[in-house]
């Protein structure tokens, strides 16, 4: 898992995009697991939240992200002691439980999968354009 802190070539925003891609992949896996278990009796649908933690971790451009060596040190909100984003994996609250105790709403899960894929692809496109500009600069505008 990577840190939300940039390096010398790629800045903080690039690190945020990279971490967003990592977390979106994890969300996709959670949604797919929910869909796969939609017929499993007693299965409780899981949720995956990382946007609030990512937003808190990046703060504003003026904020510095601290990396700490001990879990008792003060750290940025949403971050672990190692400077890595700590998303929430939780059992989704639901009002409808099937006769078999299953709480998966396949339509909702498919909607979340589609939305997650759209944002994932847009993030990939943003990174590809940045890399394309770097390639253009390295090749002297050719």
Structure overview:
The protein has 142 residues and is mainly alpha-helical. Helices cover 46% and strands 6% of the residues. It is built from 3 helices and 2 strands, in the order H-E-H-E-H. It has helices at 12-36, 51-58, 106-138; strands at residues 46-49, 88-91. The chain has a two-stranded antiparallel ribbon with strand order 1-2. Helix 1 runs antiparallel to helix 3. The radius of gyration is 19 Å and the shape is elongated. The mean pLDDT is 83.
Provide key terms for this protein.
142 residues; mainly alpha; two-stranded antiparallel ribbon; 3 helices; 2 strands; 6% strand; elongated
Order of helices and strands: HEHEH
Secondary structural class: mainly alpha
Give the percentage of residues in beta strands. Answer: 5-15%
- Neighbour order of strands in the largest sheet: 1-2
Q: Could you give the distance between the termini?
A: 35 Å
Percent helix, as a range, is 40-55%
Radius of gyration: 19 Å
Topology, number of strands: 2
Instruction: Count the DSSP helices.
Output: 3
Average pLDDT works out at 83
Q: What composes the largest sheet?
A: 2 strands, antiparallel
| Overall form | elongated
Low-confidence stretches: none
Give a short synopsis of this structure.
By secondary structure, this protein is mainly α.
Secondary structure topology:
Layout: H1 12-36, E1 46-49, H2 51-58, E2 88-91, H3 106-138
Antiparallel strand pairs: 1-2
